[in-house]
Amino acid sequence: MKQKKPSPLKDMTLKEKVEHIWEYYRIHIFITLFILFFTGSMINHLFINPPKQAGVFVGFIGKYLDMEQAERVQEILTKEIVQDPTEETEAKVDHFMINPDSPELMEISMANTQKLMAMLASREIDIIVANSSDFNEYIQQQAFIPLTELFTEEELKQWEELWLQGKTEEDRIAKIYGIYLWDNPIVEELRFVADKPVIGIVSNTERVEKAKETLKWFLNRQIEK
C-alpha cells in the first residue's frame, strides 16, 4: 500500500508555514485575490449599487472643464430639472477634451471624439456646449434640432441677441440651432475653456422636455446676471 507523503508544513513553526506558503503560492494568492476583487466589483456595480441612469445629459466639448464644479452643477440640475422622486435617475455633466491644436494631446482628443460619437449614436447625450466653430460643424452634420421646433417665437425672442444660426445641407434658409453663452455664470463657474461657447439640443435626444428645461436653466442664469 502506497504511503502518503508527509506534509512539509507538519513540523514547521507558524512563521515558517507563512513564509513557505508565500514562497510557493503567492502567484495563486494574487490571482485569487484579483478574481475576488473583480467579482465583488461587478456584483456591486450591477446589483448592490448600480450607477444611476441619466435624467438629462449635458456634454461640454472643449479644452478644459472643472469636474469638481461639474459635480455641483449635476446636483443642482438633478434637484431642479430631473426631479425624480425614485432617485433612480440624475443629471450628468461630462467633458469631452478635444483639442486639435495640441499634438501632445492628439491621442486623448481622438479617444474623446470616438467616445462622443458613440454616445451621440446611442442617444445618451441631450445637450452639447461647444465653441462656435465646432458647433457650426456639428450643425452641418445635423447634430442639433432647430430651436424653432422646440420653443415658441416669444421664448426665442428673449434670446435674440444670442442666436447662432446655421444651415444643414437640407436647410433652404438659416435656422436657429444654438444660443451663445456669453459671460454665462454657470460656464464661468465650470471654468469651461472654449472660444465663444454655444449651447444646443441634440437632434436624437429622447428627453426633449428635460433638454428644453436645462437649456432654459442655463440661459435664465445668464439673463439674471
Described by strand count, sense and barrel closure, the largest sheet is: 6 strands, mixed
Strand content: 15-25%
Low-pLDDT segments, ≥5 res: none
Task: Record the strand order, biggest sheet.
Answer: 2-1-3-6-5-4
Tally the helices: 7
Mean pLDDT: 85
Helix percent reads 40-55%
At CATH level 2, the architecture of the largest domain is 3-Layer(aba) Sandwich
Structural class, from secondary structure content? alpha/beta
Question: Might you state the CATH topology name of the largest domain?
Answer: D-Maltodextrin-Binding Protein, domain 2
Write down the secondary-structure element order: HEHEHEHHEEHEH
The figure for the number of domains is 2
Envelope shape: elongated
**Radius of gyration using CA atoms only:** 26 Å
Distance between the termini: 93 Å
Tell me the number of strands.
6
What is the top-level CATH class of the largest domain?
Answer: Alpha Beta
Short précis:
Helices cover 46% and strands 17% of the residues.
How does this structure look, described?
By secondary structure, the chain is α/β, with parallel strands linked by helices. It has two domains: 12-50; 53-224, D-Maltodextrin-Binding Protein, domain 2, CATH 3.40.190. It is 46% helix and 17% strand. The chain has seven helices and six strands. It has helices spanning 14-48, 67-82, 106-121, 132-140, 153-157, 185-189, 208-224; strands spanning 53-62, 89-97, 127-131, 163-166, 175-180, 197-201. A six-stranded mixed sheet has the order 2-1-3-6-5-4, sandwiched between helices. Helix 2 links the parallel strand 1 and strand 2 (89-97). It is elongated, with a radius of gyration of 26 Å. The model has no long low-confidence stretch (mean pLDDT 85).
